[in-house]
Amino acid sequence: MRKEKPGSLPPAEEAAQTESVMGRPRSPEVSEGIMRTALELLAEKGFSGLTVNEICARSGVSRASFYRRWVSPADAVAEAVNQAFHISTDLSAKNSVDYLLKFALALEHAYAQPLVAPAVGFLIAEIKARPDAFEHTQEAVRARREAVGKALEAMPDPPRWNDGVDLDLVLVILSGLASNAAVTGKPLSRRAVKAVITRLVEA
Hints:
Blueprint: H1 11-22, H2 28-45, H3 52-59, H4 63-67, H5 73-84, H6 96-112, H7 116-125, H8 131-153, H9 167-184, H10 190-200
């Protein structure tokens, strides 16, 4: 097999070739490139046009490099979405309302990343066809919810919710507001979001 001279291949292909020869650990650069390509193709063609062959051709990696990481294109998309929403829950906040406001703004930033909001929409639309991929994102959502709950309970004034309200509902509302801001291009109003949160917390 002919060896290419260093620097003669595109960066992604060179990294993938090195990874293939050396084995693990997997190259983070290759993984990032594959996930980015998967999101781009999903936005262009939807899940029906998202194939391993197209992802590999556009990102310049082998099918082996892809399958070393994921079992399907949908799994690659799910991981890309989870990575986009890897939000720190260690937020410096004066109180629970301030904490939830900062978390909402962090969600807005995650949704605002190019291709993320469309990918979330496609995953939700494909729940029945691709339940495993959607479940991967939900595992991350549950872990994030648990971390937020622990952070709020550790505060000097943990929130007490109004009747019919719990943390799950609050996070769904905040996520909806953040998603809408990304789709419409209209940034969240801190004052408006704070007012919503205050209405949900028991006075």
